Amino acid sequence: MILATLAAVGLLVLAAGCSFESQIAVQFLGGAPVVVKQSTKVDVTPQRVRGTTTRAGQVVRIDCSITGIYDVDDPTGPAVLVQLYVVHLRTRPLPRGTPYQLDCAGPVIVELPTDASDIQATATDASGLQATLPVQAPLSSIALAFGKRLRAEQGMQFAVVAQPSLSTGAHTAELTFSLSEARTFRQKVIYTALVSCGHSKYLQPIRPLVTTMRRARALTLQANATSVSIPHLFGGIRAYGQATRTLSCAR
């Protein structure tokens, strides 16, 4: 789970992912069109399982963890709030010989206005080595489990940013795209796990854990913004949350 820069939410995965800063830097460059740049620092810890079931009734499991670290104002002074969110992914009992691959660092789904173009993403490690991250855009819908599809909202499009084998450690992630003009706009992001199981291949939303974009929280970016705060993983000062999802595996 990398690319906190990609959006509305910044994250750190512990057993399966990344750490993030609580602010995303934003730049609006030029006039019409305007180039929007978003960047932040993340810490990557990949987590995936793959193989073929060796017995009938075998259940494949993986836990995808996301940790948000936030600067907060406490009555006694500045403090740090740490929120851990764990999604337990597991298949139904599978036949022997079923191939599978579950990767917590699945693509990041970014919902942007339909006039967003030239969408690009990069990740630069601590040594200065930069990797270009593959982007698919524009997309209007994306396959989920059990034959469902995640659909972009009216006036919006999806950009899917893949995260191929980034090295463990600190990275600076950057997302850039063009808009027809400088203006305030809304943006949403979903972090996913990549699931391949039997004849099924799809994305499983992790945070937020949704199947419709109406339930995903939007981040509003002002045209004069230089940074934006990352929303908390969940409300209040609660430190831990968890959920379980069953994965679809077509024969």
Characterise the protein shown here.
- This protein is mainly β.
- It has strands at residues 18-20, 23-29, 34-44, 48-52, 61-74, 77-91, 99-103, 108-113, 117-125, 130-133, 135-139, 141-143, 149-151, 156-161, 169-179, 185-197, 200-207, 219-221, 227-229, 240-247.
- The strands form 4 sheets. Strands 4, 7, 8, 11, 14, 16, 17 and 18 form an 8-stranded antiparallel β-sheet that branches. Strands 1, 2, 3, 9, 10, 15 and 19 form a 7-stranded antiparallel β-sheet that branches. A 3-stranded mixed β-sheet has the order 5-6-20, with no helix packed on it.
- A hairpin with a 2-residue loop joins strand 16 and strand 17 (200-207).
Task: Give structural attributes.
single chain, 251 residues, mainly beta, 8-stranded antiparallel beta sheet, 7-stranded antiparallel beta sheet, 20 strands, globular
